[in-house]
């Protein structure tokens, strides 16, 4: 017999000596690894002992007492139980081995004196015991006849021979009260098929042994905790604790009926919606109010629900007023129109339609060719014209504008905010330019003075106009100091400042680059004087938060609703992440105009019969145009057949700022164009430069004519061109969808899930992506467009403005401000011992041993396999990756040929029943695996299932469905329950839509039997934070609805109660037993996600019920001793539960990855399939 694990407070490899419960006693711990017994003289201690006489002191020396979980604790945690000495298994050698798949049905019976309203619970290291989490603990029950003995309602299914730690606890009124006061956790080593453990509450130490009494309860062997006769007597404290628990017999008799009646009444109250609840759950009325409060909060976040105060004014402040000024050459008069390419210009359905709005900014444009300033008459005329458009101009002279915009903004802030190091700005070879004076450090003082002055001029102008109930929205890096200047003005005048928002439209640099700014701290403090700081990407917000922490010592926390908050000068500044959309109404009108249609037709005719790849960029190094050219050149070299079929249409804008960078980039690009056209033909590249940006008409005509848009920016903030391209190509559904090749360094990469994401520095990867885009099937093109078009269509810029403002007004609402703050990750610190499971802490969780599974497989006669799909038989991309290369996680993928081969061989064995259980749709699962005739399929998390084609199940409770692709072959069954989604959607839709808008890359999907929020394509850190917050909010609003929130990898899914993989697993096992006239003796279940945990639990419950039927049924035909002596394990002799990946799970085995799953199934398949056996030699 192999050794049982030893227990030690050190990391030594001590083990118990061999032994078990066959002789009725567990062997004691080796002397050298037993704490000194209390009451023994110090000189009696074993000198070889490595543990001090005080076990608690030894634990404290190792960092304090800890639960087996090693996790943090609350009031009931081990860290708050100083008397508790935790033991840790230090060896893997054991009589029991989870790799054998054998289990024991264990009942607990504990004697506990309880007070009125108290109940006894049990929690321990196994998942069935709740992992030492009182919320997941088992409730024990009693009756007037049995009291003071409490027993488990149903047996625990524990791996045989594997040690388990556990403790009892008292609950009062359904709320955790206290753990039992014992000096170390109880240890149980399950043996045999069934056992009953009898013990006393609050009476246990490491010297107690589990002794077989020879008695039976309901034919189960009884084991009792008894004190080792050689052990020292209990300590006075322990004896006093036991004595305090004792009551007289008369007291027990008198109170037994009262206690039982109170517990029955309590159960009835919990079922009564009118009854009061505990302090944790609250009353039904309280819960209803909280739910309504949460729903109304999120409804206010919806754009359609935003209704500003009629007397409030919104000031949109930016450096450049969003207008175009033109001076007539004939009479010198001025005309003005809105700049339709500006993010904040007035448009149809904009915020200006529902709220008094005023634009404030600088006017630096004029039509004169000389160096004269605008005349006073010009300024007066412009002011009057702009007043009709609710625009207030601030005029600054040429030199001030040059130092502010051309100097500090464009020559210093702009490159550094794009993470260009200051050494590169001043000394990099690519930036050697003629206009060297802009780069001289001696100008830095003038630039900074100009930057401050412009910010102050605008702040003073707004300060003259704004009132307390107004809102001021400041845009971009030109005005980082504006908020602090305006706030200081209001403080000086002893009046409350207006609400303020600051939104940054360029990236925020890393702290290493930001620290090189000599005035960086002042810029941070300037921004933080607002109520909301907004970013288009979490990556940008993360850098901002890091700078706040490193240079100002500020920390951040999450707020209810998915935003973040930074405490600054007594205020909580909200950090929001929300990517702006495009003006779809305007774009649709422009695209449908005859002018644009004609321009697109001419461009097509110019390059007739060729595929057009479009690019529109600013002529600068960070746009990555040369990388695009190099990839194009390499593609033609690799694929010369495309020379006459492909043309690259690139339009570069010369902005006349940062002239050194612009001139160098232009020269470099032209040299590359000349080299490529000489080698591959003059018509393969259509390159043009313009001194002004393309008009919206020119840009949209290019999108209509092109097939692919290629963006290879090295670093980039807001860029709406890819969104325009997708929308333009999707207006007419009959048109072939376009493909976007998008740099992972662009901010819009986080919102376009259908784009082909690339690293522009990887030229080979860029070439491969170009090849993929050119050869992409229409089906994939449509799928990619379907990913992005709904988001683009439903998130216009007007909605984005209203959403940010609704967050602002909600945050500044004092009535609810105190309830906004939440922890980064939810943990109920009010209840007991929080458990963080670590695989190293579990002796019942081991790596799968193929040899042992093979041995059990070959010994068995009937087998059932339940296999998860995505992540188990199909590999999927790691959700923690920042940039996801795969278009989909699972949908549309196929298992590898080796996995297909393994499944085929397994299903050929008539002794095997094999099912693949998945959450994907029926059509996707059928397309992938439907051709394997002997394979059963389950889709939609159990809503639909199909047996192997050779089996036809017709259940009275099911609706039979045929596969449309082959009606005669495979039949599908659907659960017949009906579910009304209307109240669920009314509760969750406002919340889900708000989280979609706040979490770039997330997608909301409605299916027949579920609602899913997919955050797989989001920034991994931000997506996880948002998912935690959303799950808490959803669980709060649906607590009275018959649905559950299920957490998957990259997905939150709302499904009806009773619809999960566990339900269908149980149904498969039941129907299989009916078909085969008996239960299998081998069961193997494997999965990788949280939804698979329900399968594991269902299997344990099924095992408990079926083995009880078998044991008791067979014993009825003879003596129980005869059955025990027979050695017949009966049905479900070997049960294997396995997870993919080493992580906390209800399974007892794990494999590392899909490759190991494939290796296992191949080995089993070859053993099963008779065609794999060597055929006899023919004579």
Automatic annotation (TrEMBL):
Positions of region (Disordered): 1-100, 225-294
Compositionally biased spans, kind Low complexity: 47-69
What residues does the CBM20 domain cover? 98-206
Q: Which GO terms describe its biological process?
A: trehalose biosynthetic process
InterPro entries the record matches: Carb-bd-like_fold, CBM20, Glyco_trans_20, HAD-like_sf, HAD_sf, Ig-like_fold, Trehalose_PPase
* PROSITE patterns found in the cross-reference section: CBM20 (PS51166)
Q: Which residues cross the membrane?
A: none
Q: Which Pfam families match?
A: CBM_20, Glyco_transf_20, Trehalose_PPase
**GO cellular component terms, A-Z:** cytosol
PANTHER family recorded: CBM20 DOMAIN-CONTAINING PROTEIN, TREHALOSE-6-PHOSPHATE SYNTHASE
Q: Which family does it belong to?
A: In the N-terminal section; belongs to the glycosyltransferase 20 family. In the C-terminal section; belongs to the trehalose phosphatase family.
Name of the featured protein = Alpha,alpha-trehalose-phosphate synthase [UDP-forming] 5
